[in-house]
Amino acid sequence: MKKYGGSIALFVLLVAACAPGQSWNEFRLVPATVDENPLLPSVTIHVAGYDRKVHFLTFGNPSLPPLFILHGSLSDMRPYLPLTVLSNEYYCVMWDLRGNGLSERVGKSELSYASMVEEIKAMKELFAPTNQIAIMGHSWSAVFVAMYVGKYHADVSQAILMEPIGLQSDPMNDMESVLNLATSAYLDMSYSSDILSPSTHELLDFKMLAMIKSAVRNFFVDKNNLPPWPVWRVGGLALIVWETECLSGGKFSYDFTSGLDTFPGSVLLIGSDHSPIGYDFQLKYNKTFFSNANVLVIPNSGHRIVTENFQALYEGLTNFLIEF
Amino acid sequence: MKRLIIYSIVSILSGATITYAGEQSPEGHLHRMETGFNAYSMFALFHGYSYTLDFGGNGSLSLKAVIEFPPMLWLSKGSVTALRIKTGAEYSLRFPAVWEAGIGLFQECLFQSQVLGNFQTVGLDGRVYFGAILDSVSFGVFGDIQSSLWTFVQLSEFSLDAFEEQYTGSGASPASGVVTSTAFNITAGVYGYFGVGGNTVLKTELGLKYTPSEYVGFGGGMMFGLLPFHLSVSISYGL
Asked: pTM of the prediction?
């Protein structure tokens, strides 16, 4: 037996190494989610057939009119926390969408666009069951907000869409999309494929955290000096699902505009002056789907409006929101 | 950076030692050097040495050592940020007529310093191939499985920032630690080796690289750098 000791020890080590993404101490690549860390504030919502815990924060007096603030893809609510300055006039509700940030991770089928709309509905039932809400979404969440507005007219008084992609696919197919695969961060990500592969949510989210620094798509004022985007944890699978569900045969194929033309509330579209889906794009395409929409330009900013020109965003929001 | 310098010195010294041992070996052993690049590993250049023990009959065992570095990555960073050292053995068998087959097992050490942190990985790489030899040309198919076993990670300031501002104060993590099995990749494709005169062989490999994951289908990870291709071109020359 003794002479096989070394072989057995080696075998045990190899077997132990087979479990992907296990750490040997309390070390973590990304922060724990609410289902792993009970100290984080969470509520449970029932969406797409499952009860899921979501990480949330509220600011302001609950008796004030509710304002829901939804983060974009490859993000969580953390970069949007400065918007809590709106809580002197609104009851601000922020949360990490399922599969994103510190909310519970979910499977692909639970991240469909329809499920994201139902998630907003579930949160409204919890935090503003009887009130109309003002609602703001950025990037992919602006799309979900548009879909929610189109489906639940009566729930929403005012909607703010910060740089959604085209709400119909035609302009997206016409848009020139140059990917810069030679950025330093992309080369990093590519070279590390033999070190990090996405076999667990933790590894996937960690690997995709590098995308915040990649500038593969140039949505920025200065692609060599990216604005900060502080997050706790990105939702890797959510981005993958959202970016593939809108494609068919390698082309964009979707229509998110159902019900938008009859939405009676007011809509503010926001676009920066340095993003391919910025002010000009929003004015030319997305504004046409609403009967009562204005477009606000944020100067000296790219897609990361919240961190690039917060002051202009704040002024635009307070001019639009009826409680100010 | 200090670790990388030590890492580089050790790898160069170990390569020199193997080369020296090869030069001292008796007649009948074949020493070869190989230099080339992996296109989809960020144009990583590699340089290797193999020392073949011919057992007589049909079988032979090659001991190999390879060092690989990505100059494109180095240039984009302005510093030495990644390195791979691979050592192991490959057993080849000749069959009647023109057929040959082989199986190899390698250990590899990878180092990368990048935006997420510093990574030092110890992994295994297994390889099988089957093909035919026709005069100065050989060709066939190969399969390769690469797995990281243990990765020592030092999180960068950027990665550590994700643990900041957690108002409960409960989200802290040590800045470094070891994580098991952080990567697993399967590559399969075809190879063609062409004698180009003397003791020199042009070696080419073309294949597809698959990273098993329930989250990312084949080719679905390109947005974050999982390139599903493999292309390697090298020149191998006998000493």
From this structure: 0.90
